[in-house]
Task: structure prediction
Amino acid sequence: MRTVAVIGRKGGSGKTTIAAHLAMGFVLRGRRTILADADPQRSAIEVFKGRGEPGPELIATSGSKLFALKTAAMNAAADVLVIDTPAVLEDETAKAVVLSDLSLLVVRPTFLDLSAAVRTSSIIRQLRRPGLVILNQAPASREGVEPPIVKRAIEALSLLRLPIAPVVVRARAAYQIVLESGRSVEELPAETIAAQEMKDLCAFVDRFVFGAPAKPVAQPKDEGPTAKEA
Ligand SMILES: Nc1ncnc2c1ncn2[C@@H]1O[C@H](COP(=O)(O)OP(=O)(O)OP(=O)(O)O)[C@@H](O)[C@H]1O
Ligand SMILES: [Mg+2]
Result:
């Protein structure tokens, strides 16, 4: 079993959005997935309340219960445990990082997010655990050219000495709308840009943690350059 923590000390950076999408991404790739909500706000659990179809198994937890939860998940033959963490509780973050095969640090391209990321990335490095930065809520690129704010953020993030995910997650209304019904943008028609973006991110993270290619996603074929916004 693999364990993936979604972390970040800055509130509202998109941890729950990314954790929910990754958990669904693993489900869509045929992985038996548990989504552990370690945030007392229980936003991840809230997201899936409206989902009619099978999704990840949901567990409300806290940092001190994570070890027992991980052991139980392994005994239950889960393939992957995704942990959504709270923003400010550093001790909870450290507990999730220590138990995880990969910690995803979710950061917006803003000065305050980037400066908070310095501290969070040092937790990952001090604990000597694998980490990956995901840049989220970035403005869209224009004809392949990144807006200066994104370029500057990528330069600043390179100082954290953690790899940066090759897929930048853009600020898109689709990410907000789908969570109302507990769905992933990957479940939208494949021609939407958000669906393609999240498909690429989930495929990358799945390969990162499992090493082997996952089963193909049950989605219609990508229509390529005719992609439009969701
Ligand atoms: N890529 C995105 N595009 C548009 N909106 C987004 C994106 N990612 C997150 N959001 C929105 O930003 C807000 C905060 O997201 P989310 O709750 O996932 O952050 P969080 O880091 O889990 O917050 P908290 O620190 O409170 O747990 C939500 O309204 C969410 O819909
Ligand atoms: Mg959250």
